[in-house]
Amino acid sequence: MGPMGQLIYTGIASLDGYVADRDGNFSWSEPDREVHTFVNDLERDVRTYLYGRRMYQVMSAWETLGTTSELDYIQDYARIWQGADKVVYSSTLTVASTAKTRIERTFDPNAVRELKDATSTSISISGPTLAAAALRAGLVDECRLFLNPVAVGGGRRFLPDGLNLRLELLDERTFGNGVVYLRYRTRE
After folding, report:
1. Does residue 116 fall inside a structural domain?
2. Start-end of H helices in 24-181
3. Residue 122 sits in a domain of what CATH number?
4. What confidence category does residue 158 fall into, taking pLDDT thresholds of 50, 70 and 90?
5. Domain for residue 100, yes or no?
6. What would the pLDDT profile of 82-110 be if each residue is shown by its tens digit?
7. Residue that wins the pLDDT comparison between 3 and 160
8. How far is 145 from 175, CA to CA, in rounded Å?
9. Domain region containing 76
10. 31 by DSSP, 3-state: which?
11. Is the pLDDT of residue 151 over 60?
């Protein structure tokens, strides 16, 4: 049997651990060229993205974003994103606004396990609510966190309350804009 797919939870968070503030704002998290180029390289082997509805609605802009941008790193990410399959978990969304996308009504840990078993590439999971369900089910292999030098005082947390998890640091990097990248493997 070949190597199994890795389920990777990647997020951009404030220093106090939030992916969005109380108003749902995350404009403070927009990566600059250096960070975005690094993210692009991380995402190249992602073949499937798993999203909650809110995160999907934010990310669906990438269906057209790269075609209008002059910036090479934006075009590069758009190509990566458009080339991958997307699975959106939503009880309300009826139709996907992007290609290569399917909607699932509920998050089924066993179906995600089967997806991991069926691939040898990376599967990305995004959105703190969806990721919390995957973390609680023991499905997440790695957490990749981009910590921004900002505190927002509340909002949507990168990691859910009540989660007990041991992590092993695999990699770290500091960027010119003060962002720190931390890559962890989850441990039982």
Report:
1. yes
2. 33-43, 53-59, 62-68, 72-83, 109-117, 128-136
3. 3.40.430.10
4. very high
5. yes
6. 999 999 999 999 999 999 999 999 999 99
7. 160
8. 13
9. 6-187
10. coil
11. yes
Angle (CA) 83 102 47, round 5°:
30
Which residues make Cβ contacts (< 8 Å) with residue 57, sequence separation at least 6? none
- What value does the mean pLDDT of the chain take? 93
Contact 69, 78 (CB under 8 A): yes
Handedness of CA 44, 102, 118, 171 (dihedral sign): positive
- Residue 48 located in a structural domain: yes
Q: Quote the number of domains for the chain.
A: 1
Residue 2 has pLDDT above 70, yes or no: no
Q: CA 12, CA 96: separation in Å to the nearest integer?
A: 25
Contacts of 177 (CB under 8 A, 6+ apart): 32, 34, 35, 149
Is pLDDT of 178 > 60? yes
Higher pLDDT, 44 or 188: 44
| 20 occurs within a structural domain | yes
CA distance 122 to 144: 13
Query: For the chain, what's the residue count?
Result: 188
